[in-house]
Amino acid sequence: MEVGIVGLPNVGKSTLFNALTRAGALAANYPFATIEPNVGVVPIPDPRLDVIRGHIETEKLVPASLRVVDIAGIVRGASEGEGLGNKFLSHIREVDAIVHVVRCFEQAPGGEDVTHVDGEVDPIRDIETIETELILADLQTVESALPKAQRAARARDPEAMARVHVLEGMQPHLDAGKPARSISFDKPEHDIAMRGLGMLSAKKVLYVANVDDSDPTGTGEMASRVRARADEEGMRMIPVCARIEQELAELDDDDRLEMLKDMGMEEPALHALAREAYRLLGLQSYYTAGPKEIRAWTVPVGATAPQAAGVIHTDFERGFIRAEVYGVSDLDELGSEKAIKDAGRMRTEGKDYVMQDADVCHFLFNV
Predict the structure, then answer these.
(1) What are the beta bridge partners of residue 297?
(2) Residue bearing the bigger pLDDT, 316 or 155
(3) 139, 17 in Cβ contact below 8 A?
(4) CB under 8 Å to 208, separation ≥6 — which residues?
């Protein structure tokens, strides 16, 4: 699962990506990799790992991680081939969700002018520019796919008929300038057909308001407009000053804490961004804990215990017998796994168990 960072040129997108990946590289005991120049693997900050380590001795902590792709800046007309055009759109098609960076500052630090592609800063117009390009690209997809789907549906094939239903419902919706994520269908087969189309504007969005360093918490007028827009869409917004985050990523722990205190911030904004992106993808963490490592494993919300075991190794899922499960809060309250067992709070769960965020698990399997 991965998110793509998108935005117009000169909004601070690459600065944000560099700060994210730099923070990952500096984090003690955290795995980090730059897969390509524009792809990074960023650890998900997780205080629950430290809670577990407070009660179970271990050699290292391994957090969950997230692949992040820095997608080249879009320009108006991308759906018609302007700028990187189809290359840009194909990169968005490959990611699972979008982190949309929106410029909410007038001038760069030090008063340096950073030219806006449209001459003046207007975050809502910028949001609509990119959304319009995604909608227009989706409209092209629908107009191309509909005749073929209609021909296939003449044979009364249920899958083809569901596809036609979705395409015919989608066309006027997109024509009206509405993104695919704001339409819903009433039958499971329609939802399956919708997912198969790969609509760009169907992807969930996390808005990142790149704010001035005088407004790190995003209370200013421009950031507030982005927050209101996100609320209207049922999405989330995170205020980030990319310049501050880049500076924080380059400091040692003590200096970072001092700078955060001076800025009136409890943690780097990138921590909140990483966690929100993780949730945006519908992911949650469970843990395994032992003397060699305490590790956070990533599973989709709704995953069963065998599926969660399979994340560790496919043999674990194939030969799953049962899981012994407790919560991080149980460990923090009672102090040890033995105390959890003695209190009757160590649960035995079978194949139908649906994993909960912050479960700590021991899997029993036989292959």
Answers:
(1) 286
(2) 316
(3) no
(4) 16, 99, 100, 101, 102, 237, 238, 239, 240, 273
Mean pLDDT of 350-361: 97
> 84-121: per-residue pLDDT in tens?
445 667 788 889 999 999 999 886 544 555 556 666 88
Q: Is 345 helix (H, G, I), strand (E, B) or coil?
A: coil
Q: Distance between CA atoms of 130 and 84, rounded to whole angstroms?
A: 13
Nearest Cα to Cα of residue 166 among 188, 151, 134, 133: 188
Burial 134-166 (b: 16+ CB within 10 A, else e): bbbbbbebbeebbeebeeebeeeeeebbbbbbb
Please name the residue that has the structure tokens 């029993």.
Answer: 364
Q: Residue 202 in contact with residue 116, Cβ under 8 Å? A: no
pLDDT one-digit tens code per residue, 141-184: 999 999 988 998 888 888 888 889 889 999 999 999 999 999 88
Helix, strand, coil percentages, rounded to 5, for the chain: 45, 20, 35
The model's pTM is: 0.82
Q: Which residue type, as a one-letter code, is found at position 294? A: I
Q: Is the dihedral of CA 45, 6, 71, 251 positive or negative?
A: negative
